[in-house]
Specification:
It is found in: Cell membrane. Keywords: Membrane, Transmembrane, Transmembrane helix. InterPro entries: MFS, MFS_dom, MFS_trans_sf, Proton-linked_MCT. The protein has 438 residues and is an all-alpha fold. It has a single domain, classed as Up-down Bundle (Growth Hormone, Chain: A). The chain has 17 helices and no strands. The chain is globular, with a radius of gyration of 21 Å.
Length: 438
């Protein structure tokens, strides 16, 4: 099939992946909106409800590397459809819960597993298979879709919770996840060869890679063992753990309750987080564009430092109404919300080659470990001190530390040039090959 068609199939796959990421993001938007309603109805401590959020965030991250390997073996379409069904089930079943362990099961386990299967490792898989040109830009767009979708849902969910209760909001999210299953079934394809084309921007015909016979768990763990022998993996994982702590874990979960502590109503606070999501779209797409042109190590160092500075000033900006200074924070912080993802994906590909998407899944798992610790930790800070201020200061200092870790990354050694007459390498080295050279 001729690749000179007007619309390359890679763009259709990217649009469907975007829809799946936005659909999965809906339930991940609910924790900060549901905290006070669940506390008011069931009288559960905020730390208990935050623990369910932590289980969700932890599984969201730990599932990612195994999901990336499952996509290699069984295909993206099957894995994504199963993940959406888990999200729909977890969201819908919460309307029947009467005990906190049921919240942890539905909200934490089911939704954590489902959304984790469509986490940023899914983004890395899509862009790695379908794009050669515009890879950084598409990574930015898909990342923005997942993160911004989570935040843009907030005003709708907050309005529904206020008017109809949290159960109606949970059912809306469940139906939204089910609705995305249809386009995934019809239009998501695993490899360019499935529709007779090459990846967008590829110069030669390359067959689809064979399914990995090791099994998802063996491949995921094998990639981790190899990557863990490198300095780059620990620097990337440490920085991304801080990224998770300073976004999903703290701001994504506790911004609305913190604003409520200062007299701001929840719908207004949710609208501010939605604005963060809108500016995140611009920031992450711009980050993807920059990743194609600027050293990713420098980008990460700048992103983390700027985020740290913004979090250090946040406690002084809370008020009963949205002041201009808070709007400046929303714009500044929103541009940086997940701008770290495109350069991190690019660095995983640079350091770990063919195993890059699976290794990124483990790096992303560290992101969610950081998020889970921050979600529970901030809840404990609020319960013990009566204010979130200390949590914001700690997060700001950590983000500046993440900048230092990123700038400590070194460029990997260049592969030796092939001997005269020898065939060039057909694929990047795997993580195990790179680790053996470290």
């Amino acid at each position: 099939m001729n690749q000179d068609r007007r619309l390359h199939p890679a763009w259709i796959v990217a649009v469907v992946a975007f829809a799946a990421l936005v659909g999965a993001a809906g339930f991940r938007a609910t924790p900060s909106v549901f905290l006070h309603p669940l506390h008011a109805e069931f009288h559960w401590p905020l730390a208990t409800i935050s623990a369910a959020v932590s289980v969700n965030l932890l599984l969201f991250g730990l599932t990612a590397p195994f999901a990336a390997a499952l996509m290699d073996r069984f295909g993206m379409r099957r894995v994504v459809c199963a993940a959406l069904l888990l999200v729909a089930a977890g969201s819908g079943l919460t309307v029947f819960m009467t005990a906190s362990w049921q919240l942890i099961l539905c909200w934490g386990v089911l939704v954590g597993l489902g959304t984790g299967s469509m986490a940023l490792a899914f983004v890395a898989t899509v862009t790695g298979r379908w794009f050669v040109r515009r890879r950084g830009l598409v990574t930015g767009v898909l990342t923005a879709g997942g993160a911004a979708g989570q935040l843009v849902f907030l005003p709708l969910l907050a309005s529904v919770v206020e008017a109809r209760g949290w159960r109606t909001a949970a059912l809306i999210v469940s139906l939204a996840a089910l609705a995305v299953v249809v386009p995934v079934l019809f239009w998501l394809r695993d490899h360019p060869a499935d529709v007779g084309v090459t990846a967008y921007g590829a110069f030669s015909d390359e067959p689809a890679p064979p399914a990995d016979g090791r099994g998802a768990a063996r491949r995921a763990l094998g990639a981790l063992r190899a990557a863990a022998r490198t300095r780059a993996f620990w620097l990337l994982a440490g920085g991304f753990a801080i990224c998770g702590a300073t976004t999903n874990g703290l701001v994504g979960t506790h911004f609305i309750p913190a604003a409520h502590d200062h007299g701001m109503n929840e719908t207004t606070a949710a609208s501010l987080l939605a604005l963060v999501g809108l500016f995140d779209i611009a920031g992450t797409i711009a980050s993807g564009w920059l990743t194609d042109r600027v050293d990713s190590r420098v980008l990460l160092g700048a992103y983390y430092a700027l985020r740290g500075l913004s979090l250090l000033v946040l406690p002084s900006l809370f008020a009963a109404t949205a002041q201009p200074s808070m709007l400046v924070f929303v714009i500044f912080y929103g541009l940086d919300w997940v701008a770290t993802v495109p350069p991190t994906v690019a660095l995983c590909r640079e350091y770990f080659g063919a195993d890059g998407p699976v290794v990124f899944g483990w790096v992303f798992a560290s992101h969610q470990v950081g998020a889970a610790l921050a979600a529970t930790g901030a809840g404990l800070v609020r319960d013990q001190l009566g204010t979130y201020a200390m949590a914001w200061y700690i997060a700001g200092a950590l983000a500046i530390g993440g900048s230092v870790l990123s700038l400590m990354l070194r460029r990997p050694p260049l592969a030796p040039a092939p001997a005269p007459g020898s065939a060039p390498a057909s694929a990047p080295a795997s993580a195990s090959a790179i680790a053996s050279q470290s």
